[in-house]
Automatic annotation (TrEMBL):
NCBIfam families reported in the protein's UniProt record: CitB (TIGR02484)
SUPFAM superfamilies: 4Fe-4S ferredoxins, Respiratory nitrate reductase 1 gamma chain
Residues passing through the membrane, by range: 104-123, 129-152, 214-235, 247-267, 287-306, 312-332
Record keywords, A-Z: Membrane, Transmembrane, Transmembrane helix
Name by which UniProt lists this protein: 4Fe-4S ferredoxin
Domain of life the protein comes from: Bacteria
Biological source species: Thioclava dalianensis
Amino acid sequence: MQTEFLEEARRQAEICNACRYCEGYCSVFPALHAERAFSDGDLTQLANLCHNCRGCYYACQYTAPHEFALNLPQALANVRQDSWEEFAFPRAAAHVFQKSGLRIALATVLGFALLILAMRAIASAGGNGFYAVMAHNTMVAIFLPAFLFPLLSIAISLRRYWRAVGAGPLRISDLRAGFAAAANMRDLKGGHGDGCNFEDEDRFSHARRFAHQAVMYGFLLCFAATSVATLMHYVLGMSAPYPFWSLPKLFGVSGGVLLSLGCIEMIRLKLKADPKLGASGATSGELGFVALLGFVSLSGLALYALGQTVLMPSLLALHLGAVLAFFLLTPFSKMVHGFYRLAALVADAQKKKG
C-alpha cells in the first residue's frame, strides 16, 4: 500500500484521537479512540469502517485553513481505495479500472454485446423467446464461469484483508452483528440519526442511505429472481419464459426498478458532492461502477417491456453484455466495497467483544 496515504491517515487519526469531539459520529470513532497507536492494519480497518458520510469534516474545527488541515474523510478514502487495489486478485486489474472505469465499462459492455450478436448471426439457437437468440446451455456455459470467477477473486481479496487487519476466527455472533449493521446502513444515519452530509455540506440528509438501500435490496431481489428461476428450471422442470405473476418476474421487475432508481440517485449525489472529500482520482471508477450497475437493471427492464418486439435480439445482447461485464469487473469496481464494509463491520464487532 502507498506509504504516503497511510502516513497522512496516521497523522490525522492521532489528532482525532486527542480531540475526541466526534466520538459518537459513527463506527469509526469508537474504534479509533480504542487505540493508542495505529498500525497499517488498524488504519486499513478504520478506512473500511468509514462510509464517507463526511459529518466529521463539517463538524471539525481543525480543517483548512487551520494548520492541522484535517480532512479525515479523504484520508481514509485514499487508504480504503488503496487497500482494495492492494488486496484485489489480480491486483493490476483493480488499479486500471479505478483510473478509467467509465471507458472500461462501456467498452466491455459493447464488446460482449457485439460478440453475442455475432454468435447469433453464425448459428441460430432454435429455441423460444430469449433462447432463440442464445441457447440455454450456451448461456450457462458463458455465465457460470463469469459468475464463479468474481466469487473466487473476492474470497481471495477478503482473506488478504482479514489477515492484514489482524482479525481472528469468525464467530456467528460477530457475523450477525456485522450483517445487522450493514442491512440498515446504520453508519449512514449520522451520529445523531439525522443523516449524513455527503451531498450538501452541513445539511443533513438520508438520501444517500436510501439510495444505498435501494441498490442493495434491488440487487438482492434480482439475485433472488435468478436463483428461483434456476430452481424452477432444473428442479421443477419449468422452463422460461415465465408469466408476470411468477416469482422470477415479480422479484426481477421489483428489483430492477429499485436498482435503477438507486443508481440514478447515487450518480446524482456523487456529481453534487465535493470531490475533495473522496478518494483522489477515483471518480471515474466510482461512476463507472454505478453506471454499469444501473445499465444492467435498465436494460433488463427494457428487455421485459420490449421482449416481444423486433428490438428483442439487440436489447438481449446489450443486457447480457452488461451482465457479463458486471460479473467480470465486480472484483475491481466499487461493487467490492460492500464486501469490505461487511468484513470491517464483522471485524469491528469481533474486536468489541474481545
